[in-house]
Specification:
Elements (H helix, E strand, L loop, with lengths): L7 H11 L4 H8 L3 H15 L4 H10 L7
Length: 69
């Protein structure tokens, strides 16, 4: 089961958000543009129904998605 309908890529991005990475760092690690990383983060926030990266991080911890990728 996929939590909150997150795609595999969104789950990867959420793990990096939970690790404190910014969009540029996420982009570099996943070989995508910073703009694409930003879109992924926005989609994650919407799907989780949260307003901030901090709230998304808390959700990632609850969903056990914040461990090593």
């Amino acid at each position: 089961m996929v939590p909150f309908g997150l795609t595999a890529r969104e789950q990867e991005v959420l793990r990096l958000v939970a690790a404190g990475r910014g969009n540029r760092e996420i982009a570099a690690e996943l070989f995508i543009s910073p703009r694409t990383a930003s879109v992924h983060v926005s989609n994650i926030l919407a799907k989780l129904g949260v307003a901030s990266r901090g709230e998304a991080t808390a959700a990632a911890h609850r969903l056990h998605l914040s461990g090593p990728s």
